[in-house]
Protein: SDR family NAD(P)-dependent oxidoreductase
Amino acid sequence: MTFDSTSTASDVIAGHDLSGVNAVVTGGAAGLGAETARALASAGARVTLAVRDTARGETAARRIAAETGNPRVEHTELDLASLASVRACAARLLDRGEPLHLLVNNAGVMATPLTFTADGFESQFGINHIGHFALTTALYPVLRAADGARVVVLSSRAHRRGDVDFDDPNYRHRPYDPWESYGQSKSANALFARGLTDRWADAGVTANAVQPGMIMTDLQRHIPRDELIELGWADADGNIITPPGWKTVEQGAATPVWAAVAPELGGIGGRYLDNCAIAEPWTSGGDPPHGHYLPRILDPDLADRLWTLSEKLIAA
Structure:
């Protein structure tokens, strides 16, 4: 079935039976993560919300279970800004001794002031990429055991705003720009999906990067009021608005859910997905339009370089 920019997560999940499927959704307490989790749970999957705020996670799990009639919705603590928390979360999931069929790396931050994680990583690079890299690689044994696991990595059209700076990814020696940093982290997300597939596809584990679209969620919470107004994301009084052409949360979750369940993506990874379709590289100059991406974010050599750097960073 063909979907488009107006499709919702409910549209995409319709007709799928995920009984026996184990799924983990990071940042599943609100926004796109919660809607993605709700869709997967509605099809019968066991869904674990990996969340920083466990109180919100418990509330979200109860709500999703009630809405879907699926009691197999739970939560576990995960703070992507702390490698100790990431490793503890991975250990709990590994201790279950069950295969992990779906891992949706959804959580993230956007355009934050310059801050650093507990381990010294610039926060956007550290949370959006390094934390997810550490979690995913730690979960390799249970992903491999699923015999066809899929990892869904949320990227963004904002990848155009910044390349990965391999010499100074944490802004220790270069001027900090919050949007360039966000772009770097979203480029890293896509390169991670490519690198994972290159390494793990033979073991039955693939990953795709997803552009969910522009959606008003908590992701915008760090942007200053004046900038929100300038961007047209708030009115003159600073009240948040939804600009024309933006998606609803239900529509934004459609492509992540499509990446998780679409039959045509079985065994297919290392792609960039947009509007429930495989996007095309953009080589005509300027910013890529919807449905396209800058080729550098799926470059195999850059993906390999990022993987090597990430391994060194989490081992330090």
Q: What stands out?
A: The radius of gyration is 18 Å. The mean pLDDT is 93. Strands lie at 22-26, 46-51, 73-77, 102-105, 149-154, 205-211, 272-274, 280-281, 292-293.
